[in-house]
Specification:
4 helices, five-stranded antiparallel sheet
Amino acid sequence: MQPTTSGTFRVLSDPRGEWLLVDRETTEQIAVTGGDLEPGNLIEATVQWDDGDARLVEAEVLAGTRFHFVRDVTGLFEVARDLCRDARMKGEGMLGETTYSTDNRPNGAVYVFAEQSGARDIWNEIRTGAIPLEPLIDRLREFDSEPHEIFVLDPVEEPFVVVYLVPDPDSMLAETVRDTYL
């Protein structure tokens, strides 16, 4: 009998293989092959090991949330630039703010994470799940259920990584961010 595990996982791209599944409760990670998934999906899945290799044998997408990771971003939007400036002035490693539509309704949340000196790569740590996005998604879920669209941007002109959480992937905001940065 081959060992298996089941649970609820967030899907990330895995540079070593196909997918990196991050357990929602424990944040433990499993690198797996198989499955027709998108980074950001929330899935209920069963993983099976065969000679040390993990394979996705069953998966149900619970939420079609999508993650986008973009390096070398130019033309950063105003709220993100202002947050970077404010975080620098306050000496904060992380700062966040709600964004609003033209009719003054909340339409997203922006967080900036200061790049760390030395060998740390914050953008890559977020991309690989070492810095989990789940706490930010949980906060967003308090206001709107998934799916969401999440953009992780590494701007050229700022020493910060920007995470933009857009609750409605079909919104004009999500479309504008995709058109601008993807």
